[in-house]
Amino acid sequence: MTLAVDERALLTLFGAPVGLYTGKVRSYLRKQGIPYFERLPTDPVFASEVMPAVKRFINPVVRLADGTLVQDTADIIDYLERQGHARFSVYPAQPLQRLVALSLDMFGGEGQVRAAMHYRWTYRAYNETFLRHEFGLAYRAAGMAQPAIEQQLDGFMAYLSAYLPKLGITAGSAPAVEAAYEDLLLALDAHFRQQPYLLGGQPTVADFGFIANLFAHLGRDPYPADLMKRKAPSVFRWTERMMANDPDTPEFPAIAFALPPADTVPSTLGPVLRLMAQDYLPEVQMIVSHTNAWLGAQGDLAPGTPVGGKPQVRTIGQGCFTLRGVELQAMVAPYSLYMLQRITDAFGALAPGEQSRVHAYFSEHGLGDLLTLTAARRVLRQNHLEVWA
C-alpha cells in the first residue's frame, strides 16, 4: 500500500482531530506554512508501515515524502527545524525567553493533560454525542458499518475514560483539578487580551505546548469549550489564531510578528508562571523523586532499555503529590523527564552571568528549582521510543 502523492505535500501527518498531540503538530505545520496531508490512524499505511517502525500504537507520526518517520511532537518540531523547513524558529534565541518558552511547553503539553482528560471524560454525558462523532471518524474512514462502529466506540471510549483514576482524577480531587485549570484560564485570558502569543508577537514552543490540550480537548469538546468561551474568550480566540496559517492578529495592529528585541517576558505572563509553580512544579518534583526510587530498585538497566521495559509501556508506577491541598496519586511517565531535560540542558549551557539572571527571574515566580531538577538517569529518544541513557 502506498500513499497518494501530491508533489506539493512535504509530509503526511498521521493523527486525528480529536487527538491531543496531533493538534500541536497540525498547528506547527500551519504556522510554518509546511504543506501536509493528514491521515487517520485507520489508514492502511499506518498499520503496514508506521506501527511496525514505531513499535506501538501512538500518534502523531509524520511520514516524509522519502519515507522517513518521526514520532513525538518535540522530535517532529526539532526535525523540521533542523531540516530547514520552518519559516521561523519557535525556540527563542535569547536566554530568558528560551527558558520560559521551554518551561511553558512542558506545562502546557504535560501539565494540562489531567484537566483535559477530566473535562472530557468526567463530563462524558455532556460531551457524548460529539465524542462519538469524533472518535467514529477513523472507523468511518475505514469503511466500517455504523453498528460495528458503535460497538467499537463502546469499548474504546470505556478504555479511555478508565484513565481518570490513573491520572489521579477522583470525586475527591476533581474540585482541585477544576480550580487549578480555571485559575489558569483566567490568567491566560488576561494575558491574551494584551498579547497575541505567550511571549509576545510571535508563537514559540510555549504556544505549541499549550495548544495540545487547549485545542483538541479543552477547546473543542462541548463542556470545556463552552467553559472557555464563557470564562476566557481571549483564550478561545488564541486557539483560533494558533490554527491559522498566518499570524491572525488583526486585533493587535501595533504588535509586530516578532518577540521583544530585549530579552524580556511580558509582565502579564507572571501569573501564569506562578500558577505553574503552585500547581505543576510539585508534580514534577514527585516524578523525579519517584523515578530515582524506582531506578534504585531496578539494579542495572542496560542503556537503551525502554523506560517501561517494553515499547508499549510508558509508565513506572504511581506517585503522590499535593494539588490545592488535596493528595493525588497519579501514574509516572518518564517522558516528562525528557521534556524537563530540555529545560535543565538549556539552563546548564548558559554562561554564569546569564544563569544568574535567568535563575533570579524564575525564583521570583517560584520556579527556581525547575532549572536544576534532574533525575538519576537521563531519558533519551531512540528509534521512536523513550529509553534509559
Kindly describe this structure.
The chain is an alpha+beta fold. Among the domains are: 11-82, Glutaredoxin, CATH 3.40.30; 281-388, no CATH class. 51% of the residues lie in helices and 9% in strands. It contains 16 helices and eight strands. The chain has helices at residues 20-31, 44-54, 73-82, 95-109, 113-121, 124-141, 146-161, 163-166, 174-192, 205-216, 222-231, 233-242, 270-279, 281-296, 335-348, 352-364, and strands spanning 11-14, 36-39, 61-64, 69-71, 318-323, 326-331, 379-382, 385-388. Strands 2-1-3-4 form a four-stranded mixed β-sheet, sandwiched between helices. A two-stranded antiparallel sheet has the order 5-6. Strands 7-8 form a two-stranded antiparallel ribbon. Helix 9 packs antiparallel against helix 13. The longest helix has 19 residues, at 174-192. The mean pLDDT is 95.
